[in-house]
Amino acid sequence: MKENITPELVDFNNSDLKLKGFKVYPIGTDCTVIPTYNRRDFYKISISTGKSLIQYADRGIETDGTSLFFGNPYIPYSWELLSESFHGFACVFTEEFLRMNDRSESLHECPLFKIGGTPIFYLSAEQKVFINSLFEKMIEEQKTDYIFKDDLIRNYINLVIHESMKMQPSENFFKHKNASSRITSLFLELLERQFPIEAKNQPLLLKTPQDYAQNLAVHVNHLNRSVKEITGKSTTAHITERIIGEAKALLQHTDWSIADIGYSLGFEYPSYFNNYFKRLTGTIPKSLRM
């Protein structure tokens, strides 16, 4: 049996998922619908039993038995079933759902989601039972009206992550040459290394696609094409989102003046920072101050 799947999100409401930032569901050939999705702002963890081939960025990863998969929204992938029987569970979530505050470690830094890593883990029978039980608990909790269920589900996801970090990743893959994937990986890692901002008097140095291209020793057009191809978003969009995210964190978690925050993010004048922030968020920086 060969069935092409673009993993995730057809069988439920996208706007509802965007609002809550989380969804868990069963997967398998015995389901009425095999959920699929093409959203690029969600991380995914799935446990599945069966034989399949996952095309992940520049690699093909063959699975047989029970495996755990970690999907990164910055890396496109597709799924091909190779067996008649295929079943398990999956959950998708935003980084904002999992992270308690803007100053916690980015999921980009997690070994399981890190670009360039190997996102497949094979499970023993004992591990399968335990991880399945966590997904079953998430499915049950998702149905309840418990006021703190988001916190509880967040704990289950973190437990899956930490149990997985104890395992050795599968290396059963073959590599393809893909310059776009490599350049994008280098760009995203370089972008993350610019943050967090630790000092007011050391302004952000890399602010534009041209700055990153020069640092990576590639032409800016090549960088832009590669990033767009691999992530579906422009280089400028990635930079802008990261700067705005850091601006919000500094506004909420430091006592720096708005002028100092703007300067640290590379804006020479406070008015430039105010206009930039308002254009992208619809509100002024001062509104985030308690």
UniProtKB/TrEMBL annotation:
Key words, A-Z: DNA-binding, Transcription, Transcription regulation
Domain HTH araC/xylS-type: start-end pairs: 181-290
Tagged with keyword Transcription regulation: yes
Keyword Electron transport in annotation: no
Any one Pfam family match given in the protein's UniProt record, by short name: HTH_18
Record-linked SUPFAM superfamilies: Homeodomain-like (SSF46689)
PANTHER family in alphabetical order: ARAC-FAMILY TRANSCRIPTIONAL REGULATOR, TRANSCRIPTIONAL REGULATORY PROTEIN
Protein name as catalogued: AraC family transcriptional regulator
Organism, as annotated: Flavobacterium limi
